[in-house]
Amino acid sequence: MSYTLPEFLAHAIAMEQEAVDRYLELADMMEAHRNDAVSKVFRDMSHFSELHRDSIRERVGATELPKLKSWQYRWRTPPEVGGEEAFDYLLEAFNALKYARGNEMRSLKYYRSVAGESQDSEVKRLASEFAAEEREHVLALDEWLARTPRPSTTFADDPESMEPV
Length: 165
Ligand code: ZN
Hints:
The structure is a single chain. The chain has a single domain (5-147), classed as Ferritin, core subunit, four-helix bundle (Ferritin), CATH 1.20.1260. By secondary structure, it is mostly helical. The chain is built from six helices and no strands. The chain binds zinc ion (ZN).
């Protein structure tokens, strides 16, 4: 996974944009179920991802970025989604937080592996910086998970969603 700087920046922007959109969805969902505390967490996370996306865009400036396929940056859909009971699953704040954590963890690992494998010193530097930011996100979600009651039904354990940072 040795990217050129434009390839790396294209991934990072797409990943942040995906996070912005997904966090807004999660925020709206929590709001619809009057879980205002968790809705606010997701709105804040969306906002931070937006700021991050914009600062990466500034870094890009006029550089031409490659186009990516959506599977290269999309969040994974929650496990065991399908039918209406899946919808109930998602109503649980705990599961929504855990879902977000799993995806943050994937971003963290992605940036870490780029930082470790890249030959380009600027890609390395930025990837480590972004990995540190993702780590903060995972830790923030961990704090929320710790104070959120565990629902009666949980996702079948997704290893990345509970993996320590
Ligand atoms: Zn993040």
